[in-house]
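Researcher: Can you fold this with zinc ion in place?
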Amino acid sequence: NETIYILAIESSCDDTSAAVLMNDKVLSNVVATQAIHKEYGGVVPELASRAHQQNIVPVVDQAIARANIDKKQLSAIAFTRGPGLMGSLLVGTSFAKSLSLGLQIPLIEVNHMKAHVLAHFINDDSMKPPKFPFLALTISGGHTQIVQVNDFFDMKIIGQTLDDAVGEAFDKSAKILGLPYPGGPLIDKYAATGNSHKFEFPIPKVKELDFSFSGLKTSILYFIQKQTKIDPHFIENNLEDICASIQYTIITILMKKLKKAVKLTGIKEIAIGGGVSANSGIRKALMDTQTTYGWKTYVPKFEYCTDNAAMIGIVGYYKYKNEVFAQQDVTAKARYLI
Ligand code: KG4
Ligand code: ZN
């Protein structure tokens, strides 16, 4: 039983990350977050690619140094092939290919959305993996989907957003309230002391297990415009209650669809992932279902929720064990279904 060392690289959006795994354990997980996008109120693709170019070598060096191994011990290199921003993906893809050539070790391509789902299988004392089959709710700034996971490499999307992702709903609502980017964590913070039933926003009617969040943003915008005409200080006087009401609406939408998914599939093992799963209201709502509905719920450690290379590494490990490797002519894929 050989020990497998995987170097993993993630560069799909605005975080440059590298990790080293020893089998299913994380030895290091380095993330360089690009601060530049804050000034623009969102991710600027062109700037993201440039920052990846600058960060990738130091980030990989640091991941290897922190893992305290020699490059020569690496068994394979795993990288994010997609989905994501093309310019960003190209940096990680080209780097991974070159390094695999240089070190003469296999290359493994990884789907970023699959990685969010399989992050639960990282061997960590603070986490317990869900049992197959389970439902994975992936909620981030770029994605919102419910995936039925039958096995490591047998999963299918059973519901997804038709427009904005949940993270965008948080960030765009925050922007309307004059909060800086990314506003999700700030809404979470103010919501903690607010009354979630003070204001009411409509729950969209969307077919089956799909989601829609663009209507929510519009209704918040109209509501705020109307109220500030009456009281110019409406936002500052009601910030906590507005945030709590927005968050409550988003949680209601998510829980409604999860309940429907459980009913349709009969699966009560629920795992969440993606940056928005940091939200304390969502975490609480999900934990509550353990007693109210008898669901088993799983939330990964925060560093494995947001974009990170460790989750790319765990997929790399399972692909290595199954001898699923990529060829040197593999290309990045901006649109890449799970
Ligand atoms: O997974 P992630 O780090 O990057 C993407 O792949 O998008 O997710 C970032 C998103 C942002 O929209 C951010 O506002 C949101 O996650 N977010 C939160 C919280 N923490 C991060 N949204 C609500 N409450 C939070 N506590
Ligand atoms: Zn992501």
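Model: Folded with zinc ion in place. The two ends are 30 Å apart (CA to CA).
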